[in-house]
Design brief:
Layout lengths: L4 H19 L7 H17 L31 E2 L9 E2 L4 E2 L16 H7 L12 H6 L13 H7 L1
Antiparallel strand pairs: 1-2, 2-3
Helix pairs in contact: 1-2
Length: 159
């Protein structure tokens, strides 16, 4: 097994810091041990940033840029549920849904997105009114009349 010198050096340094960390008496700390503890924490944090806890006195939030490190700071949501389409697309500051354009009267749709139109078109929802239209068409949209009573003989004769 071939191991590079830098990896061996790193392992020895880590071992030294861990043994120093384990030997610290945190019930009766003095200034020298505090410095060793902080140096140990800084070293481990530098080498393993994901596994070490976020310590307030060691955090470097002042010099944080807009890149990878700042993505964990995004704690407030920009979008919430839309009352019209039900998707999480309603922008709180703009007060506008990015999926259906609520509160605009017209539903947001663009013909360049054929699949999106297919997902939103008639027949993908309940169709409370339209699903009854073909049946009403057969009776010429007659309303308010009593249905003719069915007889046992007519059902048998029809078959």
């Amino acid at each position: 097994l071939l191991v590079s010198n830098s990896l061996l050096r790193f392992a020895r340094t880590l071992e030294r810091y861990i043994t120093k960390w384990a030997s610290l008496d945190l019930r009766n700390p003095n200034r020298a041990e505090d410095d060793d503890y902080i140096n140990c924490l800084l070293f481990v944090r530098e080498k393993f940033p994901a596994t070490t806890p976020n310590l307030g006195f060691l955090s470097a939030t002042e010099d944080m840029g807009k890149g990878t490190g700042s993505f964990g700071k995004r704690r407030n949501k920009t979008h919430t549920l839309c009352v019209r389409c039900g998707r999480r697309s309603f922008h709180l500051q703009k007060s506008r849904c990015s999926a259906c354009a609520y509160p605009a009267a017209r539903l947001r749709k663009y013909n360049w997105s054929e699949k999106a139109l297919r997902r939103k078109t008639t027949g993908t929802g309940r169709m409370r009114y339209l699903r009854n239209v073909p049946r009403r068409f057969k009776s010429n949209f007659t309303e308010g009349t009593q249905a003719a009573p069915r007889r046992k003989g007519t059902a048998a004769a029809a078959s």
